[in-house]
Amino acid sequence: MAFPVTRMRRLRRTSGVRDLVRETRVAPADLIQPYFVRHGSGQEEIPSMPGQYHLSVDALVERAAEAHAAGIPAVIVFGLPARKDEAASEAFDDEGIVQMAVRALRAHVPELVVMTDVCLCQYTSHGHCGIIQDGDVANDVTLEVLADTALSHARAGADMVAPSDMMDGRVAAIRAALDGEGYEHTSILAYSAKFASAFYGPFRDAAHSTPSMGDRRGYQMDPANGREAVREALLDIEEGADMVMVKPALPYLDVLRSLRDETRVPLAAYQVSGEYAMISAAAAQGLMDERAAVLEALTAIRRAGADMVITYHAARAARWLS
């Protein structure tokens, strides 16, 4: 029926009515907090990401416990190694920084879901996500190192490993390695649609992972391609991924929607460092309300189809939502 019988504003009239008919909700249980862990003691704020820190293992445990108490169910851990080399040796070292962090989290926050990023860019001297041979990232050689890295994270107690390298076949290689060593219960969250994005700049500063030569467009996805993202996700699921991810989030809401329509596994989105930095910078300039902007962005990501959101805003958003 047309106006005046149909009045859409009736269901917007009061906050109670708006809450009652709200289609998409964001709760702390939908959010995952990323952390950067390093050797040493204490913490140091990351200049490109105000409010985010390089944390020692004990500082990480303290912050993760606080986030979990606020309702955040999971964290994902990124490591800064003591040394880098061409073989990414600390990535798969059982005494590496991520492995030490996972053991500490398991011991002190046992109910927390602990995810680990599985990639080599932080650990290689050249900053690429794989092993370099003949001037290029060697896909199949890299698979062996990624599998060893995931296995070391599982041995440390990770609930879920998250390969973010974008090598072909890495999910199958990791699944075979985990199952072969008795870690068939360790889940895989695949960064299935990881685009070669300009929005990663602050992360590369935070993780000390900027490539020393070339770029990552030979293995990360072209931002212009949406159908390819669906192919990537379906291949990862076929190889054994339990969950898939789109990264970044806000510039790729259409891709999120496509993956939600085409897959039946849990779907994650990563609200990346550049998205975080833009909102933080605008809020610091007084150009927008940070709380309102963060919650609006998270709602948009959930509305597009994400079941969960990895976001640097997670811990603060949990307090706002409580």
Provide the descriptors you would attach to this structure in a database record.
single chain, alpha/beta, TIM Barrel, 8-stranded parallel β-barrel, 12 strands, globular
Whole-number tally of structural domains: 1
The biggest sheet amounts to:
8 strands, parallel, barrel
Give the full name of the CATH homologous superfamily: Aldolase class I
Number of strands: 12
CATH T-level fold name: TIM Barrel
Task: Report strand %.
Answer: 15-25%
Rg to the nearest angstrom? 20 Å
List unreliable stretches of 5+ residues. Answer: none
User: Under the CATH scheme, which class?
Assistant: Alpha Beta
Strands ordered across the widest β-sheet: 1-4-5-8-9-10-11-12
Structural class: alpha/beta
Note the overall shape.
globular
CATH architecture: Alpha-Beta Barrel
What is the helix fraction of residues, given as a range?
A: 25-40%
**Separation, N- and C-terminal Cα atoms:** 39 Å
Tally of contiguous helical segments: 11
Order of helices and strands: HEEEHEHEEEHEHEHHEHEHHEH
Indicate the mean pLDDT: 96
